[in-house]
Amino acid sequence: MNLKRKIAPVGALVFAALSVAPAHAYTQCEGSMERIWAGDGGYIWLHLKDGGAAVLRPDDPNKETVAAMAMTALVSSRRVIIRYSADNANCQEFGRYDFVGMYLL
What Cα–Cα distance (Å) separates residue 21 from each residue in 13, 16, 83, 104? Predict the structure, then answer.
């Protein structure tokens, strides 16, 4: 019985440590596409009507797909959610370079 009392707290700590999922820090900003800029050496700027602009770098492997999604959102008036890698990012900030991905709603 004494051994169980000593092992139980250790077991509880191990269980708690293993059950905690790693935190994923990012920010998602929802808005409507206002305009799209392509140029300046391959950069694409996605401007939202609600403020803010995401920047896709020339080496972004999803650049063409995201550009197609942005054009679809623009012509169909569908909203998007843009994800930035920073936690608690300011969605109104112009020219965010920490673009991660985008949802077409």
Answer: 15, 10, 20, 28
